[in-house]
Amino acid sequence: MDDIDKKIVSLLEKNARISLNQLSQHVFLTPPAVAARIEKLEKHGILKGYHAIVDAEKLGYPILAFVELTMSPEEKTAFTKFITACPNVVACYHVAGAYSMLIKVCFSTPSKLDSFVGSLQKFGKTQTQIVFSTIVESRGMF
Q1: Is the pLDDT reported for residue 138 higher than 90?
Q2: Segment 103-108 mean pLDDT
């Protein structure tokens, strides 16, 4: 990636709906040249998709939490099948450290979060952190 590619990625991270004409004005290339660079970035897996940022609280999911799960490696297949079917799971990371999995979830009520955590405990020990506020939102690489 050169500096122009980095600038294109940065602009797309800020606004994935930016037009090719607007991008071309920022990087001083023609729209077809920008489109070719975007296609190359997608082909190489650098740009993996374009997403809307949704306010979960305004959709009725004010409880944001991270659940840490310790489990044995033998449980991973069953856990993966279980966790991918859970609609309230925003993300799940296999991590190093004291816990095996870090699970980001959104729920409408504390009791629903509690029920979810209870269902996880068949796989191992859990620890839950409820988010009070977000200091830094998810942000781009550039």
Answers
A1: no
A2: 98
DSSP 56-105: TGGGT--EEEEEEEEE-GGGHHHHHHHHHT-TTEEEEEE-SSS-SEEEEE
**Which one, of 74, 111, 113, 70, lies nearest residue 94 by Cα?**
70
C-beta separation of 92 from 103 below 8 A: yes
Question: What are 15-54's pLDDT values in tens digits?
Answer: 999 999 999 999 999 999 999 999 999 999 999 999 888 9
DSSP, collapsed to helix, strand or coil, labels residue 47 as coil
* pLDDT for residue 15: 92
d(CA 91, CA 98): 19
Could you tell me how far CA 138 lies from the centroid of its own chain?
8
Q: Distance between terminal CA atoms of the chain?
A: 12
